Amino acid sequence: MILFGFFALVLVAVYWINQAVRLFDRLIGDGQSAKVFAEFTALMLPDVIRLVLPMSAFAAAVYVTNRLSSDSELVVMQSTGFSPWRLARPVLYFGCIIALMMSLLTHILVPASLQQLRLRESEIAQNVTSKLLTEGAFLHPATGITFYVREISPDGNLEDIFLSDRRDPDRATTYSAARAALINVDGSTRLVMFDGMVQVFSAETTLLSVTYFSEFSYDISRLITPPASPGRWRKTIPTLEILRDPYAASKEAGEPPGRLLEEAHMRFSQPLLCIVAALIGFSTLLVGGYSRFGVWRQVVAAFVLLAMLKVIEGIASDPVRSNPELWPLVYSPALFGFVTSGLLLAWAGRTRRPRRYRAETSEAAA
Known about the structure:
Layout: H1 2-29, H2 34-70, H3 73-79, H4 84-87, H5 89-126, H6 128-132, E1 145-152, E2 158-168, E3 171-185, E4 188-202, E5 207-219, H7 239-244, H8 246-253, H9 257-288, H10 296-322, H11 332-348, H12 355-365
Antiparallel strand pairs: 1-2, 2-3, 3-4, 4-5
């Protein structure tokens, strides 16, 4: 468990940093604060942990088994009469503990965190003000819209603003003002500009008209098309709701029923993969026995078997998505892993005799 915690921490950090960098560029580029960035990364964390738990369990099982083999502790245990099945019992317990953690993530924490993340993304997308309050940067809150503000004073006034609207290819409108303020009126956001001018260029007549003003109010809400209200995402729908009526959940999510059933059964299959990953890591290394040259070949074979689990998972996904009745295929990677682990443990428990002894036995029998 200690090594599992170490490998999980390392893998979570790698995955989290990779996603956080892209999220940072997107949020900060849209003018969001560091607080919003921290909130989003925290909501993404349960899904990142879900991804790394099977690999962490596999790495911990392989590392501990390798240490036991190199220190001859497995040889001592087997010499005292412990069978491979008995030696695999602690690994099975370890895998069950990780499976419980994974079940808590897949059924409760991940759907809840992704639902909250989706709601926050919708709220921020509809917040026009947050897209515009960034000093010294040319922002593009929508296609064809460019906004710039030199400085935001402590009292909330915008100093030296520039707004360009080029959504109409035949007409370009540019607003500039010495000062401005954002106010909310009847649910819409208005930009009140002071001491500025409006320049309108017509591509058809190639004429530029300029109008100076001392005060001008413009509704910037219509510059940005509000995003549609987010529907229910399959990853946020509770498991029991999908299993109870997958076709109703499919209509709400706008996805095929097979995709919904695959998602629901994957939440049961992924905890089983944690047990399988630990058992494969242990049983593969147990087959090699003790060797002064180490068990590097068995380690490579264990990685190959783990990769085969992911290949089988990918192969089984397409039939389930096209035909909901084939949902048992979701459990085929776990079944393959349990069968493979059992065969490896049976192979490790075979009676081993030296080649010379086998040759003498065959000659005597002849």
